[in-house]
Amino acid sequence: MIKVGGKVVEEESSLNALLNDFTKLEGCKVLVHGGGRSATKIASQLGIESQMVNGRRITDVETLKVVTMVYGGLVNKTIVAGLQARGVNALGLTGADMDLIRSVKRPVKDIDYGYVGDVEKVDAVSLTELLRSEVVPVMAPLTHDGNGNMLNTNADTIAGEVAKALSSVFDVTLIYCFEKKGVLRDENDDDSVISSINRDEFKQYVSEGVIQGGMIPKLENAFGAIDAGVSQVVITLASAINESDGTRIKK
Amino acid sequence: MIKVGGKVVEEESSLNALLNDFTKLEGCKVLVHGGGRSATKIASQLGIESQMVNGRRITDVETLKVVTMVYGGLVNKTIVAGLQARGVNALGLTGADMDLIRSVKRPVKDIDYGYVGDVEKVDAVSLTELLRSEVVPVMAPLTHDGNGNMLNTNADTIAGEVAKALSSVFDVTLIYCFEKKGVLRDENDDDSVISSINRDEFKQYVSEGVIQGGMIPKLENAFGAIDAGVSQVVITLASAINESDGTRIKK
């Protein structure tokens, strides 16, 4: 299970490099992608301002249309066509397709995130059937509520939840790709990669301010996945998915 | 096999009515949709002018992005989520997904249509497996060339080609939905439906100017499907897919 962020999949050269590396991976595989930069760009061209809170997009009804177009259409199908050209039998999916990922619209507390979904249920049976048929799911960060609404859903969360669901059937390695070599001890030193981290060390790093911002929810997802039976979770460069670098998450 | 045009799927009330009717259809079923009006609207909002020749969209690289977003993302996923809410196990697809429909970029003769695909090959085996698993394909009017490029492809053509491919396995009825009750003898009289038409009558009507414009390629697709083994082809109102009205195409 490989999760790649928007930056990697939105630039032609890095996308091509990723698709080449992904093609080389053996065994059943799933690609989960982002697309936030393209969504922000298209939204802006359509006169829709992108509002972010804690790195999450406030998704009103017009923004939902944009992310459905960009994630489910443009980014997803560009990846699918690129993989098919490399002989990988890719199938683009959102959580609505085959009812694979059902979510609930995030309840409004301090902030109304709008049409944002918190994952409730992953259909591991259907995903397993696809994987057994040698289909390679390419998942957009979109789910649905079962009442006809698409919901914008964080790609890290989708990768984590799908990895958890599949871990009852498969020996799952979850790789979060990232623009750095891994979790860094010093954000100004790209080589200060923390090669492995457990939950106690994570808490310690957070309290010391070594780990902060968007890395905190990413690592929370990673620990959640390990606790739920995912065999390995790695945070690394997109260009290193076939290597043993990066940060390994331990129980 | 039901093909519905953009107008039906782009308005909430007609879309809901269609999805209710489609849900009631028994047996294996496939929905092919358009989305041209939304594509034109979004393109215009993005400052891209839509150029049409003989009812076909000239698809430059920017327009290809728009149709990939709108057909493959917005329209397709809205339908999929709507069908899932009705208990139909919909799966949104383009021709790139699972390599279902391979096309060739239309050769430039008098007109350069750009990234427009002429269908070369439909994978009836994979489609049949999906249908046997009770999955309901929802197909966007997009294919791919096998070299990493998506191609804009006429929805009537996709419906016809998929119907033909499936006719070796299934007893296929192909229904082209339309904003009129069927092929009309008098375009100003909505009740002047031609209840059945064969190829000789078609030629006669064309020579008399009774049938003209976009109805000609639609009927050509219809006759092609009947000749290739599709059991029934009907041109009717979207609201009549469960009824026996409309125009039936005979050999």
From TrEMBL, chains A, B:
Q: Which GO terms describe its cellular component?
A: cytoplasm
Q: Where is this site: Transition state stabilizer?
A: 3, 218
Catalytic reaction annotation: N-acetyl-L-glutamate + ATP = N-acetyl-L-glutamyl 5-phosphate + ADP
Record's keyword annotation contains Amino-acid biosynthesis: yes
Q: Which GO terms describe its biological process?
A: L-arginine biosynthetic process via ornithine
Could you tell me the keywords of this UniProt record? Amino-acid biosynthesis, Arginine biosynthesis, ATP-binding, Cytoplasm, Kinase, Nucleotide-binding, Transferase
Record pathway: Amino-acid biosynthesis; L-arginine biosynthesis; N(2)-acetyl-L-ornithine from L-glutamate: step 2/4
In which residues is substrate bound? Answer: 35-36, 57, 152
One Pfam family it belongs to = AA_kinase
Q: Where is the Aspartate/glutamate/uridylate kinase domain?
A: 2-236
Enzyme Commission code(s) on record? 2.7.2.8
Q: Matching InterPro entries, A to Z?
A: AceGlu_kinase-like_sf (IPR036393), AcgluKinase_fam (IPR004662), ArgB (IPR037528), Asp/Glu/Uridylate_kinase (IPR001048)
Entry annotated with the keyword Cell membrane: no
Where would you find this protein in the cell?
Cytoplasm
Q: Report the enzyme's class at the first EC level.
A: transferase
Q: What NCBIfam families has UniProt attached to this entry?
A: argB (TIGR00761)
**Which family, according to the similarity comment?**
Belongs to the acetylglutamate kinase family. ArgB subfamily.
Q: What's the name of the protein?
A: Acetylglutamate kinase
Task: Give the originating organism.
Answer: Bacteroides graminisolvens DSM 19988 = JCM 15093
Gene from which this protein is expressed:
argB
